[in-house]
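User: I'm putting together a teaching handout on how multi-component assemblies are represented. Below are the sequence lines for each component of a complex, exactly as they appear in our records. Could you produce the 3D structure of the whole assembly as structure tokens, so the students can see both representations side by side? Please keep the chain order the same as the input.
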Amino acid sequence: MKGAGYYSKATGGAKDVIDHGKSLVLGAIEAIGQTDNTRPFTMSDMGCADGGTSLDMVGEALCAIRARWPERPIQMVYTDLPRNDFSQLFQMVHGLTDVESYIGTVDNLYVMASATSFHQAMFAPATLDLGFSATASHYISDRPCQISDHVHMVGASGEERRAYEEQGRRDWETFLRRRSDELAADGRLVLFNFGIDEEGRYLGHTGGVSMFETFNEIWEQFRDEGHITGEEYLATNFPQCYRTVEQFTDPLTDKGSDVYASGLRLDHVETRVVRCPYERDFTENHRDADRFALEYIPTLRSWSETSFAAGLSADRAPEERQRILDAYYTACEERVRQSPEGHAMDYVHIYLVLRKD
Amino acid sequence: MKGAGYYSKATGGAKDVIDHGKSLVLGAIEAIGQTDNTRPFTMSDMGCADGGTSLDMVGEALCAIRARWPERPIQMVYTDLPRNDFSQLFQMVHGLTDVESYIGTVDNLYVMASATSFHQAMFAPATLDLGFSATASHYISDRPCQISDHVHMVGASGEERRAYEEQGRRDWETFLRRRSDELAADGRLVLFNFGIDEEGRYLGHTGGVSMFETFNEIWEQFRDEGHITGEEYLATNFPQCYRTVEQFTDPLTDKGSDVYASGLRLDHVETRVVRCPYERDFTENHRDADRFALEYIPTLRSWSETSFAAGLSADRAPEERQRILDAYYTACEERVRQSPEGHAMDYVHIYLVLRKD
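Assistant: Of course. Below is the structure of the complete assembly, with chains in the same order as your input.
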């Protein structure tokens, strides 16, 4: 928890992904039939972090909801895990930071937060009208095994790879079943999920230097040079699964699945690559390798540091752990500084719009 | 924001107040008629801080609600201001701290938080079934004026006293009107409010040394000795109004009032004094003045420090402000240490149970 908008400031690209996908959200609102007006309309952002990346999109969506249902109360529920900085989220949404918020522009609006995991039931049955989630569902509920020669499942093979894919399959089906129960009739889910596209591309792996290979090489080097132990290297595994388009859509198209039986339907699927803003700025604008390294690595660090920290032995003192992590990201920076070409955290998302029959 | 359960650990007495009043909450749940089962049952704790003082009561209340409506989804909504430590609240409620939580003991339960002020609309109309609030409604929405010779309205007189009472009256009526709109038919409010009882007693003013007089005397001394300026002394005013029983009940019994017209009714009113646990421990148990001072002052500091800090000039550096505040509470401790007899933060509450017709 770094606070003070650290996450959203370090993740300009994640905001681009959401802003570019706005029309899918607005289209979903248009497509919802005139449902029960006696109930508040409930929208959620599931896995919201500090709320900064979705703030503009949510503001537009709430205006569109208000326009369609002029008299209906609206509940906007932000969700993330209990250790998330909800105070920062609320301060941003309530207009107490330097970021412009939608608060005050939509009447009869009730903003809330939930710290229940999206692997669990988060809403009362049939009360969710529009569920949104971006760049969150790749977090799995448990690490199924250690990966012997990599830090992320995209670099795993054989049984280890299959174990992560199986965990990812079960968590995705659970996510869909829970949300299906929570959705009101004709409700919508709009999900921008990290995944592997038709050409095998995924986050930071779009033709140039592969980001997770860089992560793994430098962590291996830290092991080989004795900065971390072999056990710590093995224990470092991102609790994530990047799914393919088919893995995302299978439960929605297989008429024998529980998800299909629950009434959840696939309205739309597409994949998009959103270019890394730091790489673009370097390539097209400043060509300053130092600046690129100093701007680019913090965006990686913002979401990866907890996974590297989790691999370190609990016997190490907090300052020692922090020293190792600082040295690690300094080494990542050095790698980019010395050979900047090809480094890029391009975002690869599978965009889904789902409907509850 | 001190985090890590600071508020609830420093406020054992506030938890006593809630625990002693449990039967009023459970009675209110019993008294609610069988209302619309198709809607989730919504309970709230308004002005919850880190949720620690109400945790046991809320757990019992949720069990009682579940027993009365075995199939009904329950929403538990905690509310406080945006700068509240909601992460600490969620970690405590979700069982991630050393405090035992009710989470997992009640099925079909959805815990949420709101950072909307209780002076505003917090819930969609007619969706609140049981609103609870303890030791919070004395915070007024604005300071109406400076108090020339005191830090708190209980020490103010004349026009200044009347200005605070008038602000308190308007905020209380707004609170009741908003909650009345939000309450479902036959819903209940159970409110344990700081106030002034029939014998003129209020927080820390129950016959011994008057706590707010001590606060004021030492702050005056800080002014006279030049630690703070005259402007800073004047600018230090707790944004609070302690109301009398009549001031609390007037809008509920005056048939011409907006509150009465909205259908809100007084079911029950009583006053209670809950003895200061630190003074009791000193008097009946250890008789150690040093220990009393060191245990007693932090409970005062936990809720009063922001008001003294707000009086200090914005031109002072943060470290200087902190140094003054540290010195102030050290002086308070010294006062208790040298003459411990009579110091006590006894809690004086007006207990109200209200019903929406």
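A couple of points students might notice: Residues 49 and 129 of chain B are 21 Å apart (CA to CA). The mean pLDDT of chain B is 95.
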